[in-house]
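Before going further, learn to read the protein records used in this course. The integers have meaning only within a learned vocabulary of local backbone shapes. To see the layout at work, look at the sequence and tokens printed below.
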Amino acid sequence: MRANYKLQRLYVAGDLDSGLPVRPDAAQSHYLANVLRMSEGAELLVFNGRDGEWLVRVAVKSKKAVELTAIEQTRPQPPQPDLVHCFAPLKAGRLDYLIQKAVEMGAGVMQPVITQHTQVTKIGSDRVKANAVEAAEQCGILAVPEVREAVKLDRLLGAWEKDRRLIFCDEDSSTDNPLAALQSIREKKLGLIVGPEGGFSDEERRELRALPFVTAIPLGPRILRADTAAVAALAVIQATIGDW
């Protein structure tokens, strides 16, 4: 069942069930009451990543608080996407774009990775989570991705699930076509790793290529920016061996 885009959508933290009160946080209450100017009896859709999507109605409204009542479930909760998206942190604006697009493209886990050429080594996980939620609200997605703490590349690879295929975007590949490499993958559990603006170092490339659970793919004949490369890689993976 597709999302209903005629109604406002809101992510909430609390449980959702028929007749339960739903209490948005202070910022959300302000948004509903003073920006959208919703009146008592107005309807919208809410989700929490666990209980599906629910039609709710504004029950109580004041300048500082809005209380909603759950009326009926409009969509059941789908399985959480199983694609782990590993990426080198970028500067704020481009990182926001990367997170939003990764959510839209079906990433289930956001895993920041610190590589040798990573320029931004500190990442605000709260900002990443907020961007992921906003993208889910806007795009009708019910399963909000898990946002993990940043780790160094060697730690990521050392702890990697051996039955999860890690697709490595290798800008120095000898071919421009990723399809043959992707079509040879038989694992259902997938991960993607995209490097920083300066790319992976030669040492990191050798390390990745030597691992039995890694498949290197190219992304065409052009040099792509890191955020563009992430979107391109997710698109070709989903179209070839993903959920498209």
Notes: Residues 96 and 198 are 19 Å apart (CA to CA).
